[in-house]
Every structure is written in structure tokens, then in C-alpha cells.
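Sequence only, no structure available. Ideas?
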Amino acid sequence: MVQLGTLEKVKDLRLVWKNEAQDFTKWLAKEENLALLSKELDIDIELITTEAKTGTFSTDILAFESNTEDKIIIENQLESTNHDHLGKIITYASGHDAKTIIWVVKDVREEHRRAVDWLNEHTDDEINIFLCRIELWKIDDSKLAPKFQIVSSPNNWTKTIKRSSNDEMSATKMLQLNYWTQLSEMIDNDGDYNAVFNSRKPKGQHWYNLAIGSSLAHISLTINTRENDIKTQIWIRDNKDLYDYLYSQKEEIEEQLGFPLRWERLDNKKASYTNIIKSINLNNEDNWDEAIKWHLDMAVNFYNVFSDKIESFKNM
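Reply:
I predicted one. C-alpha cells follow.
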């Protein structure tokens, strides 16, 4: 008979992080720990700096979202939420023109959860506020393991639906949200896909990003209802050396994939990419199953071929 351990929550976070600024913020700012938070929130978070100045105040962590480069501020609190920090997150967000606010705390008071819910309900779809609890867990005498738990988050369905009826893009935004929702469900429900990817929070936008195991690049799925095409691509945010390294292996990569790619270095821009395009009309929902399967099959192929090469580049 298999012996099972007992899962136990550790109440005292200061067993690991004695000082909020010197210990917890520095721990969270490491790439592997921001990746844990990214996974929980379905946001690709990349660090800019810690203790970023906002007037006479300092933001614990200033970061950005990989696919949009929108600013993110992260405020940490190894105690219960309070009014002081609620005011700080708004001050820091305005000072850095951040689109995403992440408030990481030990415990959440009900009045502050309601306040964050209210802010999410009454701001437009560009502003997103997350209230997230940090916890420590162990099994019997095992090492302590951190876990982030979302307490309050933006409702993207509600924000998309609340857009003005005069917004000519509202129908397109709803189509995008519905398409990515179905694609997310396919990832969650299909073992071949969820063995490789974690689904992301669907949004009313033309792209949907999937992690490839490195902050240098990601897999980007796109839809274009005007041009009637969809794409699967490797998106390199800001690294021409990585693009050149991959392009030097173009023939080998395309042979492994089994099809040619379109390569774009984009010398006048930070980003570079390589992709494959499929013509399909997504305004006809009867085509969605075919499109979603193509998107995800291509994404798995891209992951299998590109992830090792990107890792090799990092180790050069």
C-alpha cells in the first residue's frame, strides 16, 4: 500500500523570509520565482528592477508583460492587507503608468478584497488588479514550498461585455475572447496539449501566448478576422542575436518541422519572429475546431523544435 504524507500549511512566513524588502522582494524578483507568479496569474512577467522610485516612494518590483510591454507593479506585504498598502498600489501604478497591479500578501481582509473587486469592476479593460496570497506548504518533513493563490482578479468576460455598444470593435473583441476561451478549454481537456502547455487566461485580443521555457521568446498564436488568416509563431521580444542564431539553422529547423517558415528580423524594431500562416475564415464558427487544432498542433511542433535550440543559445 502506498504511504501518503500529510499536507500542512506553514503559518509563519518569516521562517523563510525574515525581512519583507531584503528577503521576500529579492526572492520574488528572481526569474524562477516570477515564473511561479506568472503561471498562477496567466501573465508573462519580466523584471525591470526592484525598489523603483515613484517620487519619494519606492515600488517593490517594477516589471512588464512580455507580449505587450505594458508596465506591471508588484507590491509585497508579509502581513494582512491594510489601507496604507492599498493607497500605495494606486500611487505606484499611476507613477509608472502601469496597466497591471499585483498585490502579494500573507492574509486578506474582507474589506480590501471587496475594494479590489470594486476597482476591477469600475476600471476599463486595460487596467487589471490582482490580489494574491503567498503561502508556504510542506508534506511531513519535506522542504517548504511556496504557493501563490489568487484572491481577487479582473473578470475579462465582464470587462469585454461592458465595453460601449458604440465601440465598433466590440464584436471582434467578443469573437476573439470566445475563440481563445475554446482554445484554452482544449488545452485543459486534451492530454497531448496540456502535457506541453498550461492554458492562459483568455482575453479579447488578437493574440494568445504560450511559454516555451525561456523569457527570451514565446510561442504566439494570432487570429486576423479581416485577412482571414491565423498564425503560429516564435516571437522574440528583443534579441537579434537569438534571431540570428535560429536563422543560421533555418534549413535544419524547417526540415524538422516539415514545412517552410516566414522569417522576419525587423531591423527597425525590437522584436523578431518566424511563423507559419493558414488561411481560414474565423467569422464562420464552423471553422473553429479546425483552426484551434491547427494552432495547437503547430504550437506543439514549434515547442519540440525550438525549445532546445533556444536553451542551447542561452548556454553559449
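Residues 37 and 254 are 34 Å apart (CA to CA).
Hope that gets you unstuck.
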